[in-house]
Amino acid sequence: SKKIDAPALASSDGSLSSGHHDPMMIDREELRKKIRIKYESNIARAYREALSLNAKLCRSKANLNALLSVASPDVVTPTLLTTPKNLNTFEDDESRLLEEEFPPSVQDILHKHAWPFVLSQMMRSKKSYRALFAWGVLGIVSAYYGGHYWWGSMYNNEGNYGSDGIITSSLPSTLNPIAHGYMGSAPTSTTTSSSNNTPHSHCNLFALGILSLTVGIPYLWLRQSALKVAHRLLANRQNAFKSAKNLLMDRIAIGRVQRLKRCDVYYPSLDSDNRSGEQLRARCGLIFYPGALVDRTAYAPIASRLSELGILVAVANLEPYRIVSRLKEYAVREEVMHILSDSVLLCNRGVWTVDEWAIGGHSMGGHMAIAAVADEFSSTMKKVVLWGVGAYPDPNTYPCKRSLREFKDVNALVVNGSNDEFVKRAKCMEGKVVEFEAKMPPASGNPISAGVLPPGDMRRGHTYNVTIEGGNHAGCAHYGPQMSPFPDGIRSITLEQQQRRMAEVTGNFLLGKDKRD
Q1: How many CB atoms neighbour CB 445 within 10 A?
Q2: What is the pTM of this model?
């Protein structure tokens, strides 16, 4: 191969000059290899990150100047006006805001979510109940008759040991009493060589063994099933795209997003329409629950779109498990109230005032939203936003005291993609469509995609069903492809097109007002 002069690339340990090559000459392929090693080193990576953070800092200062032109000094926190003293300080602050979140261990998932899920699945099936009952009866009967007849030595008419025993009768006469005592079950009797009648009551080890197997086999089977579920939950965690993470970092840098303990809050822009006196004002606030196993950062792009429409969006933090397997273990009322108060009170720019609150979710997060309104917040939250939902919550997972149809003033928006395989399969399940339509508010034939809702509809309680042509399940956020519990449909439109359409429809629903007001 062609030789090139590369004295500057020779390392201090002489690694490039070793072998049969001239110390001042190096093969081109080896040069590429060494350059890649240098490029992927920790020092080079840190240098690139420093340059990227420096560029973000410059953009942040420009955006802050633009924001300060419309925001009064008494609203903006002084810390946002100052530039970090050095790049390392800025980098430490960014890493603190978006610190790496490690997944839980398999044992944690097993005890926290896998066991409850497996038990709930077993309890929801009548066949499982019958099979478990039959297995228990079989075990008890086997233990009883096995102890008395199969392994136990029985007394004959003369009172001798082992004459009628199945196993112990073949043993020597000196061992028959011992075998009878530890393996058999005998009634109270006497021996011919004793003048006194001595009762013999022995523990039947064989019967205990059968009972242990009766209990142990179902337990081991359920444990293995729970372990499989735990491994599946850990392996199918849906991480956000890098573009979503970068967008979140940029939004945090300019003060439009705050990562709090319980939620990520996306604030509307600071213009004159969103302010009233000394308080910041949003026409609507949306508490949003992510889908099962989905990183909340994946919703940064579409939540940012909604915030540009004047909606304050609080995406709930379900880390580290990213799932709520049972509603009983999640204090929904307390958590929602904490998210609501934190999002309006802990903003760096001041205290927000929200005219109206709504709640929503994606997929399993939508079930959480339905249960929250049905059980706790029907009097305060009149709008429910559901993305990728085709069935009503499972009563074994999210039991609802009442259905949404019972609340005459609650409106629901259901947005699904035409290629959403999860919704399609849910609708194919027996009775799911009928149950969903029966428990949700009555469907409205008025489209909301054209603009403001028709007069009066927002007070009577309706369900607005919107289908995004070409959209799929994972297109509701920036993650994918989703392959569990079965493969999602293939999206025939771009991710940006699907989310733009979803944001428009959701914004029209949340900001729509009754014209009689």
Answers
A1: 7
A2: 0.70
